[in-house]
What we know:
The complex is a heterodimer.
Chain A: E1 4-7, E2 10-14, E3 19-25, E4 32-38, E5 45-51, E6 56-59, E7 62-67, E8 72-77, E9 86-93, E10 101-103, E11 107-112
Parallel strand pairs in A: 2-11
Antiparallel strand pairs in A: 1-3, 3-8, 4-5, 4-9, 6-7, 7-8, 9-10, 9-11
Chain B: E1 5-7, E2 10-13, E3 19-24, E4 31-38, E5 42-50, E6 53-56, E7 65-71, E8 74-79, E9 88-95, E10 106-107, E11 111-115
Parallel strand pairs in B: 2-11
Antiparallel strand pairs in B: 1-3, 3-8, 4-5, 4-9, 5-6, 7-8, 9-10, 9-11
Amino acid sequence: GENVEQHPSTLSVQEGDSAVIKCTYSDSASNYFPWYKQELGKGPQLIIDIRSNVGEKKDQRIAVTLNKTAKHFSLHITETQPEDSAVYFCAASLSGGYQKVTFGTGTKLQVIP
Amino acid sequence: DAGVIQSPRHEVTEMGQEVTLRCKPISGHDYLFWYRQTMMRGLELLIYFNNNVPIDDSGMPEDRFSAKMPNASFSTLKIQPSEPRDSAVYFCASSLDTAGYADTQYFGPGTRLTVL
């Protein structure tokens, strides 16, 4: 089955700096890569996703890049703000109508004011 | 839409008792997922349903766990008998079937289970 590795497990940045979280996946058939943000006491929420036919996607301060050859993808948050502090999960899913998504182990991001 | 609804939000029980967690998915969604989250193991998929039919239950830890989806708007996850190692946050999520592509999963607020 799919295996997703995520690094780092914790990340502290100063407010205004950038944060980068990296993930690798094992199954070359995976074609959907969502990123979820989980705030304390809440369920994960999708913040951005990318499909394998695109190399990069941006949404305001958030961007995701995908390298299919190397089987890795990254989340970039620019101009970080205290409200960005949360746990971030990357994920990958198999193609072919499956909805099963394999999650990474999570990165706890702390933005220091 | 109210989003995915889970109940109860918190459950404290004693070892050996039966626990039932409930989930109402977003109306119109075709898929329903049950996850368990712990510090040690992260976010684990337990089981998922498509159109009320269980598709993959390989993540269910053992026979003490069972899940049902009697209709499109309701699912339960039951643990009988419960054990302290079952203590975790259990999430339910739902998503749409989008022409063969995986789509956004919408998570509920979770049920925090403590087994004493």
